[in-house]
Amino acid sequence: MLLLQFSTSHYCRKARLALGYKKITYQVENLTPGLHILKLKPLTGLTTIPVLLPQKAGEPEAVADSTRIFKYLETYQSDPPLLLPDTTQQTQAWLLEDWLDESIGTATRFVYYNYRAGEGKSIDSSLSSQLVINVVRRQYGITSASVELAAQRLETAMNVLSCWKTQPYLVGDRLSVADITAAALLSPLALIPFYRQTYPWLFERIVTIHNICGETLPPGLER
Ligand SMILES: N[C@@H](CCC(=O)N[C@@H](CS)C(=O)NCC(=O)O)C(=O)O
Questions:
Q1: Sorted alphabetically, which SUPFAM superfamilies does this protein's record hold (predicted)?
Q2: Domain range holding 46?
Q3: What atom in ligand 1 is closest to the CA of residue 106?
Q4: What is the CATH number of the domain that holds 115?
Q5: Binning pLDDT at 50, 70 and 90, where does residue 223 land?
Q6: What confidence tier does 76 reach under pLDDT thresholds 50, 70, 90?
Q7: Nearest 5°: CA angle at 139, between 137 and 143?
Q8: Residue nearest to atom 12 of ligand 1 (CA)
Q9: Quick one: which atom of ligand 1 is closest to the CA of 69?
Q10: Closest-lying ligand 1 atom to the alpha carbon of residue 64
Q11: Ligand 1: does its nearest atom lie under 6 Å from the Cβ of 66?
Q12: In this predicted structure, what is the pLDDT of residue 14?
């Protein structure tokens, strides 16, 4: 299998965590932002990564979108399962997955790039890095007003996810799509001191889930 990705994308981290959890062997191809559209559009009709290419007869040519990748991987190899046996719990896990994917992953992106362009500039103050950050900010419409809204959404997310303080999994009694999605999509916050200091439990869970899935820890959490 081949995963088309941007190396720094938290949505691609989400796909890698699922692949790692299932111990599926795969390669990655890092696409160049901007030029990625030329490759993806004809392949998937979309412009976003991650995209998984199963590269096997009888399998789809390309699976686009991290949620579809979860569903595809579950049919490709059911063990260990990403889904919970109880249907009510699994419905709740998909609900969390969708909310994290559509709302919180975007909020993380806004707060993260805003930080990297301001207080966190010293993480990489090179011209090329700041250029990329500014292109991303323009591409996604990251302004001080939209960052404020995103930060409020993250505050709500921390309340919703605070059950992680006392229990290892967000839903049920084993790892699910909800845990993997939260661990990936909130991981960029590890570089922001406010989140590290205010929500230490979040980063403990993120580390544990990366270890379970055999995925390299995100920047800020490496040992
Ligand atoms: N819902 C999508 C979101 C993926 C997404 O937003 N990917 C971003 C990178 S983090 C992307 O490909 N951006 C490039 C573009 O939109 O052209 C998924 O889960 O796969």
A1: GST C-terminal domain-like (SSF47616), Thioredoxin-like (SSF52833)
A2: 2-76
A3: 6
A4: 1.20.1050.10
A5: confident
A6: very high
A7: 40
A8: 48
A9: 20
A10: 20
A11: yes
A12: 98
Structure-token pair, residue 161:
């996810």
Strand partners, 4: 29, 51
For ligand 1, whether the C-beta of 11 sits within 6 Å is: yes
Q: Which two tokens stand for residue 207?
A: 């580390």
Ligand 1 centre to CA of 93 (Å) is 21
Of all protein residues, whose CA lies closest to atom 16 belonging to ligand 1? 48
Query: 17-40 burial by CB neighbour count: b if 16+ within 10 A, else e?
Result: bbbbbbeeeeebeebeeeebeebb
Beta carbon of 179 within 6 Å of any ligand 1 atom: no
CA pair distance 221, 190, nearest whole angstrom: 7
Strand, coil or helix: 29? strand
Ligand 1 within 6 A of CB of 65: yes
**Domain at 60, CATH number:** 3.40.30.10
Number of domains in the chain: 2
pLDDT in tens, 160-180: 999 999 999 999 999 999 999
| Overall pTM surpassing 0.70 (yes/no) | yes
